[in-house]
Amino acid sequence: MQTIETNGTLSAKKTSGKIRYHVLIADDDETSRRVMSHFVSKMGYTPHTAVDGMDCIRVLEESDEDMHVLLLDISMPVKDGFEVMSYLKANHFDFPVIMVTASNEIPLAVKCIKMGAFEYLTKPVGMDRLEIVLRNALAESNLQNEVIKLQKELKSKEVFHHIIGKSEALRDAMEQAMMVMETDLNVLILGESGTGKELFAQSIHNGSRRKKGPFVSVNCAAISNDLADSLLFGHVKGSFTGANNDHTGFFEQADKGTIFLDEIGDMNADIQAKVLRALQERKIRRVGEKTERSVDFRVISATNRDFSQAIMNNLFREDLYFRLEEFPLCIPPLRDRSEDILLLAKHFLSEFASANNLDSLQFSEEAQASLLEYTWPGNIRELKNAVQRAAVTRKSNIIEMLPAPRIHGNSPSIPARHNQESTESAKTPSDLFSLEDHEREAIVKAYGLSRGNLTKTAKMLGIGRATLYRKLDKFSLQNLKNG
């Protein structure tokens, strides 16, 4: 059995080449439920039933399966069809709804269609008519989801166009970034030096609703205590010696846009308290100014540090950390992206040749083998430097050998890959914090932000509810199902 994900809320199971759709029938009349369930089953679909509007909502919230069509009676006890429709709209369900109504309720059915229902059927329901409407509803829904899927693929190509690679580890990181980019959650990007954390930050900004606003990049490690207030929050003319003009700080520069706090793990402890207040209040006060200014910004931060050790040693504030990591995103090191090494190396070689008006340059088979054998502890930045040095020191248009970085050895070629034991021992605790750990943490975080609403949790994560239930089982979070 295979699960096909068509978008965040529509998935179907495929058995023996045939897609299995799930149809929810909400009707307080037992006979109607039985008749429609029998016919839905004969059509090859899986029927699910609810006895009233409240039960319908419960099934949608708790079922392990994503529903593809809802057959909804208008007149039901506890909650009627209108209340269910309002619930669907408020919780962003996007499957087709077919209203089922008595003949004297047609004006009410039309009202439901204005609320977003696909069609209505009158009781007693004609089975031929039901079959046509169900097939049309599923066909239109599938078409819409294909459009959404294509739109997501085009957007992904657009926002990640400057990130090169096809490895599964890189695709996973991109998918995580796609999930969060259209929200306003603060993102903490974790990864070793040289992995491209700023490129991901820029991509998240470019794919967000803030893309027309500024993207302000700040190197936190370079901010001294003396200049922190002025650089981050600005100052007014005459507020201190040398303040000859008003100055707009980084946070204010990022108004209506994104501020990227690079190397946040190296930020001075005294500055951390001021940044925390800015994040909490969304207000800043320029040096020398008595009033505060409201600023609308999103924070993306990045570090290659191990926060657990920094917090334990009182080098980083735990409360600031939790403000920053509303959504953690882990960028894989180059050693985990072996499929991307030659793609990147050839790109850098072509880029160098073009920038320096050189004829086409190529790597020999031996050079390509050495590229793949090396562990690249400096990641993409080290790879780019090695390719550029090789291009400068080449003896022909064919690069036979890559000079070794001096800090990693003095042999005439790139050293061979370290054995697995030495590689593992060199990893820091943050390196060993896997993508699965981050995925589990993201689920728990989204569950908390949605106050235990699993539908909202799935929507926030950009996955279907059935997918969410599978991940809850995978990460031993079954207690959230009953929470």
Keywords:
Rossmann fold; alpha/beta; five-stranded parallel β-sheet; 45% helix; single chain; Helicase, Ruva Protein, domain 3; 483 residues; disordered N terminus
Explain the overall architecture.
Helices cover 45% and strands 14% of the residues. With 483 residues, it is of the alpha/beta class. It folds into four domains: 2-151, 3-Layer(aba) Sandwich (Rossmann fold), CATH 3.40.50; 162-332, P-loop containing nucleotide triphosphate hydrolases (Rossmann fold, 3-Layer(aba) Sandwich); 335-422, Helicase, Ruva Protein, domain 3; 435-480, Arc Repressor Mutant, subunit A (Orthogonal Bundle), CATH 1.10.10. The strands form five sheets. A five-stranded parallel beta sheet has the order 5-4-6-7-8, with helices on both faces. A five-stranded parallel beta sheet has the order 10-11-14-9-15. It has a three-stranded antiparallel beta sheet with strand order 1-2-3, with no helix packed on it. Helix 6 (168-181) crosses helix 7 (197-206), helix 8 runs parallel beside helix 10 and helix 17 packs across helix 18 (454-461). The longest helix has 33 residues, at 127-159. It starts with a strand and ends in a 9-residue tail after the last helix. Residues 1-11, 406-413 and 415-433 have low confidence and may be disordered.
